[in-house]
Design brief:
The complex is a heterodimer.
Chain A lengths: L25 E10 L4 H11 L3 E9 L5 E10 L1 H13 L3 E6 L5 E12 L2 H13 L3 E5 L3 E8 L1 H11 L4 E6 L3 E4 L11
Antiparallel strand pairs in A: 1-3, 1-4, 2-3, 5-7, 5-8, 5-9, 6-7
Chain B lengths: L7 H6 L6 E2 H11 L4 E4 L6 H8 L5 E4 L3 H15 L3 E5 L3 H5 L1 H9 L4 E7 L15 H5 L5 E4 L6 H12 L7 E6 H5 L1 E2 L19 H13 L3 E5 L1 H5 L3 H11 L3 E3 L14 E4 L6 H9 L2 E5 L5 H4 L10 E6 L13 E4 L2 H13 L7 H13 L13 H11 L5 E4 L3 H9 L8 E2 L10 H11 L5 E6 H6 L4 H6 L4 E7 L4 H10 L15 H8 L2 E5 L5 H10 L3 E7 L32
Parallel strand pairs in B: 2-3, 2-4, 4-5, 5-7, 6-7, 9-10, 9-12, 10-11, 12-13, 13-14, 15-16, 15-17, 17-18, 18-20, 19-20
Antiparallel strand pairs in B: 1-8
The chains are: A alpha+beta, B alpha/beta.
Chain lengths: 191, 584
């Protein structure tokens, strides 16, 4: 046939002799502007299930314009699968814009609340940890405190590591929300 | 709420809107979309719509035997005319019976608009009688769907549904209409269309068109791979020009049959699992693959690792999500196949056609080495013989419908397709039973064109009730059942790959289909002797009405060539016990 070793394709459809880039599994942050209508969340969530894409987290809320909602979706995958995720999201009719904030400079936050076991001896220590994370104690009982912590995923997880020793009774997290930094809006950035 | 913005100024210029029921507004909207034929079955929640149709003499409503049939008939209507097919069903079971047809249309990119009745809005969510969440159930198998919650939204929603369904990549759309919405009065009229999140791209990027032309000019072994998208975009003329002017051979997918005339020397027929040996050799050896309206389905590609391993790939498709989904596109071009291929042809006028003489010589050798042939032994009736004869007796513009299975593959292999929109079958979903209802839809869409159906015994029995529709509508078509008393394709796999363990694939107690046809009021023939093929086909084609031929074939006949599942396209076998092409 052709010169040298026969060419093949990788299971991803890319020719072996072409450079396969971005093949590693990693985390991607997508900001999805959608019409604020009934059923949109289930269209988006259903798409992920049907195409076997993994959602790490999904946060959704109304935007400055009540006709639109913004979803921040954290998805696990590689460049090829996430490219498909973006294209398939764009095919959902009420989806207005999909922005990939993964490589862009963006601010990422999530909110978490931890119900941490305590007794009179440990309560002070927990509050000290909370202070150093700029976290707030939002409820206090004799055997447990509820601490609210806001920050990027690393900060929230670092806080969790610190209070684990006291016994975490319950946790709730909002999932990541992200906005592009600077003057440009999220919908003007990304790709 | 509605995405369509109301343009009050424009509506004021029109006549003062009259108040009418939601169902009347719905039917009015269908007429504005040019609907002349619908397929459906009535029932409780859809009754108000039927009540409007009762007085209507513009739209021909065809009552079907089963809602699945209504959806398939609507699919065929789209395939023949290029206009959306419309089907109607009531809520609950009527709606869920449509699902198979909707999924079929979704996989094969056919524009159908399904109107389903729904329980009254105040009862939604209460598990009312015949309530199904049709929006939820149909979501994964439709391009889009709507639940109309207010009668004032009817005109705009109908307009949007047709627009979304038949622009860009065509697909099925559901309009779920609660009974009170149908019954309540509204004076709303349609306003300017505005679907914010939807804007299909039709023009190919000029830079990519240039790159494609460059690649064609430089290619030594180019190959066109045309699919259903080329037919839907009406790009057959452009594909022919690209091939003829540049000496590029053409293979098609199953749904691409008819995109390029098969009597042209450059035609290699179909590729893939049951494609020709020479098409599969060509795709394996080509250095440039020009995919036009194809989605590189696994039945076409075989094992991805050995699909067109030396080829640079140009992929032209209207749906950006198809680009590099299965096969990496080196030159992706998102756009309408007719325009894009037309633009490439224009670009090629200023360039040299590639020198493909050696390549075409090679392909001629392969055509001789791997011919399409079958053995006529003794008195056995061979399916290939029946289909070849049917081809001889019918014109190039004859529409061929099929079910799914061995007979479908023989129909693809042994009937020569010359013109677009003459092949109507279930490709992606592989829906047994689609044949007869598609035949009905095709005949109603093209009453003056000859329509034939090549069906299987198992497929035919799945939707046999539609014979009553065919007889009532006095449809003139010929349906040939390639009957081997088996689920033939399953039997073939069991014979070749499962040590002849024929689990649940034998159908020894099938009815006599010619008598079944007669019982419905159609005309039936039983064909068992190869000597009688001509006579029976002549009679059936001549008969004015639904003709059903029960052609009892050699049950041991298999479909070859075959690329075993999981193998590369170059590892096809020409018959039982033969080796792959690499070895021969």
């Amino acid at each position: 046939m052709s010169k040298g070793a026969p060419t093949r394709r990788l299971p991803t459809g890319v020719r072996e002799d072409a450079v396969a880039r971005g093949a590693d599994e990693t985390e991607y942050t997508l900001s999805v502007l959608v019409e604020n209508k009934p059923g949109v969340l289930s269209r988006v969530a259903g798409l992920f299930t049907r195409r076997d894409f993994n959602i790490d987290s999904l946060a959704v809320g109304e935007t400055e314009n009540p006709e639109y909602s913004r979803m921040t979706i954290v998805v696990e995958g590689n460049d090829k699968t996430v490219e498909q995720v973006k294209k398939q999201l764009n095919k959902v009719i009420p989806v207005i814009k999909v922005s990939d904030l993964t490589d862009d400079d963006s601010v990422d936050r999530e909110l978490a609340m931890y119900k941490v076991a305590c007794d009179p001896e440990t309560r002070g220590e927990i509050m000290q940890i909370a202070n150093s994370f700029r976290a707030n104690v939002v409820d206090m009982g004799s055997n447990a405190v509820v601490v609210e912590v806001t920050g990027d995923t690393e900060k929230v997880e670092a806080f969790e590591d610190m209070v684990r020793q006291f016994g975490i009774k319950e946790t709730v997290r909002t999932g990541r929300i992200s906005l592009a930094r600077g003057e440009k809006t999220t919908d003007e950035t990304g790709n | 709420m509605s995405k369509t913005t109301r343009d009050t100024e424009e509506t004021e210029e029109e006549e003062a809107p009259t108040t009418r029921r939601g169902a009347e507004a719905l039917v009015e909207g269908l007429k504005q979309e040019g609907v002349d034929t619908m397929f459906g079955i009535t029932g409780g929640a859809i009754m108000p719509v039927y009540d409007v149709l009762y007085d209507d003499d513009e739209i021909n409503h065809v009552m079907m035997g089963h809602e699945q049939g209504a959806a398939h008939a609507a699919e065929a209507y789209h395939s023949v005319t290029g206009r959306p097919g419309v089907c109607l069903a009531t809520s609950g079971p009527g709606a869920t019976n449509l699902i198979t047809g909707l999924a079929d249309a979704d996989m094969d990119s056919r524009s159908i608009v399904a109107i389903t009745g729904q329980v009254p809005t105040e009862m939604i969510g209460n598990d009312a009688f015949q309530e199904t969440d049709m929006r939820g159930v149909s979501m994964p198998v439709t391009k889009h769907n709507y639940l109309i919650k207010d009668e004032d939204e009817v005109p705009d929603t109908v307009q949007e549904a047709f627009y979304v369904s038949n622009t860009g990549r065509p697909g099925p759309v559901v309009l779920d209409v609660p009974k009170d919405v149908s019954k309540n009065d509204t004076d709303a009229v349609r306003s300017e269309l505005n679907v914010e999140g939807y804007s299909p791209n039709y023009e190919g990027h000029p830079r990519q068109i240039k790159r494609a032309a460059e690649a064609i000019e430089e290619a030594d072994k180019p190959l066109i791979f045309a699919g259903g998208g080329a037919i839907m975009a009406d790009a057959a003329d452009e594909v022919r020009e690209l091939a003829n002017e540049n000496g590029i051979p053409v293979t098609t997918s199953l749904q691409g049959l008819g995109a390029f005339p098969e009597d042209n020397d450059l035609s290699l027929g179909m590729l893939g699992m049951h494609g020709t040996g020479y098409a599969n050799r060509a795709v394996t050896d080509c250095d440039l693959l020009i995919g036009i309206g194809v989605r590189f389905d696994d039945r076409a590609t075989g094992k991805i690792e050995s699909f067109a391993p030396h080829a640079k790939v140009i992929h032209i498709d209207i749906d950006p999500a198809e680009i590099s989904k299965n096969i990496h596109a080196d030159i992706p071009i998102v756009g309408d196949a007719k325009r894009v291929v037309g633009d490439i042809n224009d670009e090629m006028e200023e360039r040299d056609a590639p020198d493909t003489a050696d390549w075409l010589e090679k392909l001629s050798e392969w055509k001789e080495k791997y011919p399409m042939e079958y053995e006529q032994e003794g008195d056995d009736l061979k399916p290939q013989r029946v289909i070849e004869t049917l081809d001889d007796k019918t014109t190039d513009d004859t529409i061929v419908c099929t079910g799914v299975g061995q007979h479908q593959m023989w129909a693809a292999q042994w009937y020569e397709y010359q013109e677009p929109r003459t092949w109507i079958s279930s490709g992606g979903l592989g829906t047994m039973g689609c044949g007869l209802p598609m035949t009905i839809g095709a005949k109603l869409a093209a009453p003056d064109t000859e329509v034939v159906c090549i069906d299987g015994d198992g497929s035919f029995l799945m939707t046999v009730q539609e014979l009553t529709t065919a007889v009532r509508e006095e449809l003139d078509f010929t349906l040939v059942i390639i009957n081997n008393y088996y689920m033939g394709m399953v039997r073939q796999w069991q014979e070749l790959f499962q040590d002849e363990r024929y689990a649940e694939s034998e159908l020894p107690h099938l009815p006599e289909f010619d008598k079944i046809a007669e019982a419905f009021g159609a005309k039936g023939w039983r064909l068992t002797d190869p000597e009688n093929v001509d006579e029976v086909l002549d009679e059936a084609l001549e008969y004015d009405g639904p003709s059903v031929i029960d052609a009892v074939i050699d049950p041991n006949e298999n479909v070859f060539p075959m690329v075993p599942a999981g193998s590369g396209n170059d590892e096809f076998i020409m018959g039982k016990g033969t080796q792959g092409s690499r070895i021969s």
